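Chapter review. Work through the record for ribonuclease H before attempting the end-of-chapter questions.
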Amino acid sequence: MNGTTPSLSPGSGTKASSRSKSSPSPTAGMKRKRTTGNKLYAVKKGNKPGIYYSWPDCLAQITGFKGAIFQSFLTFEDANAFLSGAKIPSATASANGGENTRFYGVQRGRVPGVYTDWTVAQQQICGFTRPSYRKFATREEAEEFVDAGKEGALSSHASGAPGLTNENPKDADGVEYAPGDGPLPAGAEDGFDPNVLLDPATGKMVYKAVAKKTGTKTRATGIPGMLRIYTDGSSLRNGTKLASAGVGVYFGPGDSRNVSEPLKGSRQTNQRAELTAILRAIDIAPRHRDVTIYTDSRYSIDCVTVWFVNWRRNHWVTKDGKPVENRDLIESILVKIEERNELEVKTLFQWIKGHNRDPGNEAADRLAVNGAHEGVRQKAEALEVSRRAPAVGLEEELF
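Structure tokens for ribonuclease H:
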């Protein structure tokens, strides 16, 4: 599906090697190891363990997987031995005077860990803000270095929510980053930096005061791997020709998946904006990832978790005999949820009190309000064009 070529199993090295693109001839040399001419990447713990022919394929299996274990090799024998936990043949050769393997410990980088291939290690640190890495003669020393970085990150955190730090982040020159622009602290979850908040007076991100950090209660992390998404809807100029609603979806600070847009269609209501925001969130969220959608709309949650059962049974007619409002959006959300259920992926909803200084809710609200303002602007422009249109039409008829 993703172009990877995993090995059949740790114990099927002979079978796997026979499928390689270039098998060495029996007279190619005295060594018994079968080389591929290129590096192989063995993933012992990852999304899909196995042997891969390219680093991008390997990277896809370890990215986002906590505690991933992987290593590059030149032979199938070594790679399969690594997967099965057996002694790696090349390690014996090194001990007997063969090539000395260097170990590169990446303490801070894209994927922290121990690497034996400098090219691969470089990919973890190049372009990464303030990387930390060193070269070692033994794996034990490299692992100690990486582990020390984890302990240091934990000790630098303030007590409270995951990711809280005692100091604000600074760049390589010691200059403090603007709130929300610095790298996410270790432990931060799903793009949320607990060290910043939205100032309701200015609408800008600011760093939390030390007193506020120490007073922050630890929030339950919930189901491991759960993606939290905040949604909101907004409506402006109700009862006028410029009435417009906006949709807001918030994944995290600066996240490219964030949504701020006008509500489409002729029915510009807050309820439709709230439901549309949920639909957009589920549509954007990775299909393989459990998600919890946080919204301050009890109506929206009840529509897609409780009320729809009777509505379906009654052919989408209320107990008063009236057609269910917003049926199109509710059914679209249910289809998305049922698709995810078939993949055994959870889609949960959590009500959150609106305008209660929750950073995620405040950010989603701002995105929704901005979307509504854009809708007002577009309608104002359209009305201005329509005012001029009759004069243009009359002029054309005269000529």
